[in-house]
Structures are given as structure tokens and as C-alpha cells.
Write a structure and sequence with these properties.
Helices cover 32% and strands 16% of the residues. With 491 residues, the chain is of the alpha/beta class. The chain binds flavin-adenine dinucleotide (FAD) and iron/sulfur cluster.
Length: 491
Amino acid sequence: MDENHPDGFLRYPREPIGKRDPLERIGDYQEIYAPTWQEKHLRQQGERCMDCGVPTCTGGCPIGNLIPEWNDLVHRGRWRTALDRLHATNNFPEFTGYTCPAPCEPSCTLAYNADAVAIKSLERAIVDKGWERGWIQPEPPLRRTGKQVAVVGSGPAGLACAQQLNRAGHAVTVYERDESLGGLMTLGIPDFKFDKRQVTRRLDQLQREGIAFRTGIDIGTTMSLSDLRERADAICLAIGAQAHRDISVPGRELAGIHFGMTYLTDENRHQAGGGAVSIDAGGKRVVVLGGGDTGADCVATAHRQGAVDVAQISVRDQPPLTRPDDNPWPWQPRTFEQTYALEEGGEALYALDVTAFVDEDGDDHVDALMAERVKWTFDSQGRRIDKTVLESDVRVAADLVLIAIGFRGAQADSLVDQGIELTGNGRIAANEAMMTTLDGIFTTGDSRRGPSLVVWAIGEGRDAARHIDRYLMGESRLPPSLATQSPPTDE
Ligand SMILES: Cc1cc2nc3c(=O)[nH]c(=O)nc-3n(C[C@H](O)[C@H](O)[C@H](O)COP(=O)(O)OP(=O)(O)OC[C@H]3O[C@@H](n4cnc5c(N)ncnc54)[C@H](O)[C@@H]3O)c2cc1C
Ligand code: SF4
């Protein structure tokens, strides 16, 4: 298979690493993905890459992963070099190889009129092999600069920023308000989508590289920003965007209505050995409000807890099955895709605008919600501007309602009291160098960008590290997220 076949895409169909059977996986909290894969199969998948002149896939990846390079290296069986090239742009390829929605794939040239290269599967396979072979080891810096940096928040943005800054020689301490590290990867995303061992082994690597972690410290409350500033030459706020968006309709105060994130965090703590769950879907009719990732994770968790019925309500219409004319390749498709959660069961209800929660038997607990079936008009940015009501008084029975309609922005009230400014949409305000309005205090990840994806958080963390390194040293050799200066290496 060493010979290069530029027509590999004609020889082999696209076959990503599969998922486990929905009927089997719904009975446990193990990862939904097939746990193993065959080397020959992945090498064939790598051979499907056409190595096009303009790799649109790389442009589709928010951190500019060098996709055609490692596709070819996998095809040739040069896994170690493939891992080096993957790490050149991505600190934690298993975070993305398992959780990324892979915006690179619809941008692959093959996707113009055929099936894209299985890029995400190749990424996962490379990093799986790296861990299995023991190639992923601590890489402490050769020299220390004597500068201290405090990173606030241990999600993917904070961890990527910390690792880059530490490798540049700065002494890095990560402050986390929670007792567990990893941000939404640990307390938001369920175990069956992302096993927490994937986070703990990276944390072990980071600790052995010399990064210090302090948990249970809420910066702005437990320790003031000015106290922290006195301890550090620079600070990076990577505090996420976890302020819930709520729904304001009659009956919102009834028992049995919770935020989806509260529900998922509760279950994640339970899975980590933190005692019984306080919100249990077992035996209940569950309604999830919101058609995004958080909503899907609520649906799948409710199934595993033994819900009798699960409905997921989206305020928008079901997307079209094929690309509309105004949404051509290589743009991200706005088409329907079945979620892993609804593959396992449950019903998706579209174009329902909730008008009230109702208590029908007078026990102050929700029994149903009422909604209007609507048709929306949109502005040129795809924002909803107006609705026509097609049907009113649609009733959906519910013993448990989970609100998963997005996030308002950063949870930063105490930091605002201490001088941090927010934008109109709740993000931490920063200039082009990612510095807030306070000198030496930077921000990155969801807290700067708004609620996003793990891959963007990693890229944001890398970029913030570069800006902080430059602030401290006057120049930086750390690469930005969309390009790499790391030279290729070989086995
Ligand atoms: C349920 C759910 C499922 C998701 N699924 C996916 C997915 O499948 N794929 C994907 O790509 N993305 C997914 N996302 C999005 C992804 O998890 C986030 O975009 C990403 O984690 C953001 O990283 P971050 O480091 O910016 O922030 P976070 O991961 O939110 O981490 C911020 C950290 O800062 C800490 N913190 C906050 N304030 C303070 C303070 N004052 N002092 C100290 N610490 C503080 C928080 O406790 C937290 O640990 C999902 C999100 C949710 C909610
Ligand atoms: S990080 Fe996401 S977008 Fe980038 S190559 Fe991997 S799967 Fe694709």
C-alpha cells in the first residue's frame, strides 16, 4: 500500500470509524463510538485524499490542521510522523478526534460531488495510536523565562493556552473554580460522548510538564483579580460562556423544569462517583427544549436514565435534506443531520414556539407545555425576525422539562465588578491581541468568542498564548492557530 494511488477515492468508499449499535450503547455510559479500528481500513481511508492543490479542508478546520499531510502519512503507515504533524497545530487531537463536528469534512474537495475523506476518523486513529504506543510524553521546556502566568479556567481553551505558554518557558498556574478540571469537557459533555480518561491523561501530561493546577478557586470571588494580578506577570481569563439562556413564559416557576446544563453536570458528577443524581429522568416523560448539542446530550442522558418518552423541541423548521442554492460547497451545509441521540430513540418536534408550562393537577409540578406551531421569516444573517402562527394550543405532555436553548455569555459578574468589561452580547471585551481593557489581562475561548466548539477553544487558547508570550517577551515563536512554524520531523 506504500505506492501512492491518486485515485484512492475511486478504489475505496468513505467508511468512517463507526458508532456502536444504538440498542446496545443506550444501556451503558461507555463511548458511543466503536472502541477499535483496523489499521488496513484507516490506511485505505487516508489514501482517498486527493492531495488537492488548494486544500479546502484545512481552511475548513478552525485550527488549520495539516489534513492532507497526515492523510498521506497514515496511508503510508508513518503514524509517528503523522502524530507530530497533528500536534503541530493541535495540542489535544483526541479532544477533537472524538468530539469535533468536523467542519473540515464538508469543505473537502471530494464533498463537492462525492463523499468526503473521513478526516475526523483519521485524526482519532493517529492520536489513539500515539497513546497506545506511548509516543505522547511530557515535553517540559529546556529553559524557564522567570515569568509567571495565571490561566483562569481549565476548559480546552485554558489548557491549550497553559500548555503553549509553559512550553515557551513561562511558569503557568491554572486556577479552576470547580473541584474537577477540564471545563465543559468534564462537566458538560457526557461520558458516553467523551470518556473522562481522555481528559485525565492529558492533565497528567500537563502536570508532568510543570503546569500547576489549583482547584476550588473562583477568581473574582475566592481570590480577587487584583490579588491574582500581583502574583502573575499576565493573566488569561478562559472562563467559558456558561450563563444560561432562560425562557420567560407563564409556569416557568413550576417544579420539574431545569436547565439542561444543570442536568448534565449532575449526571457527570454522579458518573464520576459523586453520589445519587438530583434530577432523574427515570420513568418520566421528558421534553428537551433546544435543538443543539446540549439538547442532544440531554436526550441521550434521559434515555440512559430510563425515561419512558423523550421529545426534543426545536423552535426552527427541520433543515432541508440537500443544500439549498444559497448554501453551496465548500460552505458549511445547513442541511438536516440525524443526531446520535435521536438515533437511539425519541422524537424531534420542529417549529414549536413554547408559550406556557402548565400544572394540570394542582401539585405545583409541570404536567405539560403549550406551544404554537409557527413559520418564521429570517433576515440575511439567518436570524429569526417574524413568525406566522399556523396552529395554537399544541400540547406536549411533560414530567421533566430540560431547557437547552443556549447560553447568554460569560459568567463574569464578579469580574465586571473588578473592572472587566463585557460586549453587548455578554462576551469579555478584548482588543485584537486578545487583551481585555485591563493591562496584562487577556481572554480566550468561549468567554471571548461566545459559545462555540472544542476545536475553536483550542485554537483560541493557542492564539492567546502567542499574544501573552509577545506581551511578556516582546516577541513570540509560538505559532498562531491557523498556521504552523513547526518543522516536519521523521521517525
Ligand atoms: C452539553 C454540551 C455539549 C457540548 N458538546 C460539544 C461537542 O460535542 N463538540 C464540541 O466541539 N463542542 C461541544 N460543546 C462546546 C464546548 O464544550 C465548548 O465550546 C468548550 O468547552 C469551550 O471551552 P472553554 O475552555 O472556552 O470553556 P469551558 O469549557 O466552559 O471552561 C471554562 C472553565 O472556566 C471555569 N471558570 C469559570 N469562571 C471561573 C472563575 N471565575 N474562576 C475560576 N474558574 C472559572 C469553569 O468552571 C470551567 O471549568 C458542548 C457544550 C455543551 C454545554
Ligand atoms: S479538528 Fe475538527 S475540523 Fe479540524 S481536522 Fe479535526 S475534525 Fe476536522
